[in-house]
Specification:
This protein has about 240 residues and is of the alpha+beta class. Helices cover about 20% and strands about 25% of the residues. The strands form three sheets. Strands 1-4-6-7-8-9 form a six-stranded mixed beta sheet. A three-stranded mixed beta sheet has the order 3-2-5. A hairpin with an 8-residue loop joins strand 2 and strand 3. It is globular and about 75 Å long.
Amino acid sequence: MYQTDPPRPPKETLPTMYDLPSEYPEDSGLPDEFHLFQPQLLRETFCPPNYPTEEVFVATDLNLYYDLRHTLWYKRPDWFAAVGVSRLYEQQNLRLSYVIWQEGVAPFVVVELLSPGTEKEDLGQTLREINQPPTKWEVYERILRVPYYIVFDRYTDKLQAFQLVADRYSELDLSTPRVWMPGLELGLGLWQGSYQGIERLWLRWYDASGNWLLTPLERESQCANRLAAQLRELGVNPDDL
C-alpha cells in the first residue's frame, strides 16, 4: 500500500471492529452462572465520579484486539473497563469488539475470574510458545499496559490485585480485600451479600467513603423506602395506597 500525503487516518486504512471476528470459535459453550452474574454486578456498580457516563465503556467477554502486526490476535477478558473513550463506537454504534488501534485507549482495569483451566495463564505462570500469541499476562502487562489487573478465584474466594509499576506488574498487599484506584476515584473489593438471590462473596465497587455502590435495583428500592418513610411521617400508610 502506498503512503498518501497527508496520511489517511487509521479508520480508513486499518481493520475496524466491523472487519474482525466477534465470536469465540474456540469455545461453543455458554458461561456458567457466576460468569454471568459477577460481571453484571461489576457493570452495575461501576460509576467513576470523575468521568461522565458517555466516556465510560465496560465490556464482558468481548474480543479485545491488541496487536496491529497480528490483527487477528485477541484476548477475551471476563470484564474490563476503559475510561476517557466514547461509550459508543464513533458515538453511534454498540461495539462488536474492542480494537485498540482504532480506539486509542487501553483498558484501565481488567478482571479475570479464575477457572481451573485458565488459572496458570491468568496468573502469569505459563510461558509463551514459539510462534503463538502472547499470554494474557503479557498482553495486559507489556502490550496494553493496563494499570490494574484483578484476579478473583470464586472457589477459594481469594482476591489478587496487580498494579503496573514502571513496566511490570507488582502484586498489591491486600491485608483487607479491597483495592483503591485513585485514577477512577473508586475501589474494588469483596462484598458479602445477596445478588440475584445468591448469598456469597462478590466483587463490587465502592466509593471514596468506603460505601458499596448501589445497583439500579437497590437505588430504586432505597428511593421507595424513603418515600414510604416520608408518607408515614405525614400519617399516611403507604400500604393502603
